[in-house]
């Protein structure tokens, strides 16, 4: 087991120890200071803080930058970028789960097509209200499918203040405790060769068009965009990493052929597979 995998396992065990300590105090009226119950939780978050800041370098040269891997875009049509590595790294604030150079994409087919954030109401929206839901996810290169999961449900959006607080305070913590699969939701991982793997997260339930072991061609449809896992709304989460397991992998920088790396809020047009450059 790698050091990173061991650290993430210890983090989840410490969280469980906290829950157990609180339950034991309530059930058995243990005679000790209440702060002892929080010691495992404090240790857990000290550990995860270290893990989240650990590992931006390339595997063969820790601490040095790796050249971006050029691949095709994972979508076609009109999209905008969120949490882009063009603006900062780690793009999502952490190195954990190989997210150093991850990017989020939301569909922008036209003005007003995508529902905006609301302070109070509606608390949540149906996934079909978002134009990204059901959009095809495309292979960014000729590759081999090494992971493919699509059994988790697509939940409602978290695009109001109460729903977002619920996600950050309760749901997100439970998903962290349950492990990386519950964070990234349904997903596909491609082995691109040369130590690069592509991860597509938050895939729509039941939408997989490929299986583990399949060889796929650039531009081939792999699955469809969903809203599974730790997600506020249907969107595409894409990243390159140096291994197939997000729990142990480190992020790898990418650039999309003909597009580059769009910045936060930048709207771009990705060509369809039939018109994409060879």
Summarize the structure in words.
With 278 residues, the chain is of the alpha+beta class. It folds into 2 domains: 50 residues; 202 residues, Distorted Sandwich (Glucose Permease (Domain IIA)), CATH 2.70.70. Helices cover 24% and strands 21% of the residues. The protein has 4 helices and 13 strands. Strands 2, 3, 5, 6, 7, 8, 10, 11 and 13 form a 9-stranded antiparallel sheet that branches. A two-stranded parallel ribbon has the order 1-12. A hairpin with a 2-residue loop joins strand 6 and strand 7. Helix 1 packs antiparallel against helix 2. The longest helix is centred in the first third of the chain and has 26 residues. The radius of gyration is 20 Å and the shape is globular. The termini are far apart. 39% of the residues are buried. It is an enzyme of class 3 (hydrolase). One of its GO terms (molecular function) is hydrolase activity.
Features:
278 residues, alpha+beta, Glucose Permease (Domain IIA), 2 domains, 9-stranded antiparallel β-sheet, two-stranded parallel ribbon, 4 helices, 13 strands, EC 3.4.-.-, transmembrane
């Amino acid at each position: 087991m790698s050091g990173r995998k061991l650290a993430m396992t210890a983090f989840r065990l410490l969280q469980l120890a906290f829950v157990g300590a609180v339950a034991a105090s309530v059930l058995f009226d243990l005679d000790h200071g209440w702060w002892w119950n929080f010691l495992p939780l404090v240790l857990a978050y000290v550990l995860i803080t270290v893990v989240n800041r650990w590992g931006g370098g390339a595997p063969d040269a820790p601490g040095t930058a790796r050249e971006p891997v050029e691949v095709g875009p994972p979508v076609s049509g009109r999209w905008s970028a969120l949490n882009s590595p063009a603006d900062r790294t780690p793009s999502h604030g952490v190195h954990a789960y190989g997210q150093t150079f991850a990017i989020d994409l939301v569909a922008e087919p036209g003005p007003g097509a995508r529902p905006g954030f609301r302070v109070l109401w509606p608390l949540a929206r149906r996934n079909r209200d978002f134009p990204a839901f059901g959009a095809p996810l495309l292979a960014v290169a000729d590759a081999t499918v090494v992971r493919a999961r699509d059994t988790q449900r697509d939940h409602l959006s978290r695009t109001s203040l109460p729903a977002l607080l619920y996600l950050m305070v309760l749901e997100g913590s439970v998903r962290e405790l349950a492990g990386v699969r519950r964070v990234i939701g349904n997903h596909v991982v491609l082995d691109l060769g040369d130590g690069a793997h592509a991860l597509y997260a938050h895939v729509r339930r039941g939408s997989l068009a490929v299986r583990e072991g399949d060889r796929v061609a650039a531009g081939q449809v792999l699955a469809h965009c969903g809203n599974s896992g730790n997600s506020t709304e249907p969107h595409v989460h894409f990243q390159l990493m140096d291994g197939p397991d997000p729990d142990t992998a480190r992020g790898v920088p990418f650039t999309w052929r003909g597009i580059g790396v769009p910045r936060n809020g930048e709207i771009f047009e990705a060509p369809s597979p039939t018109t994409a450059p060879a």
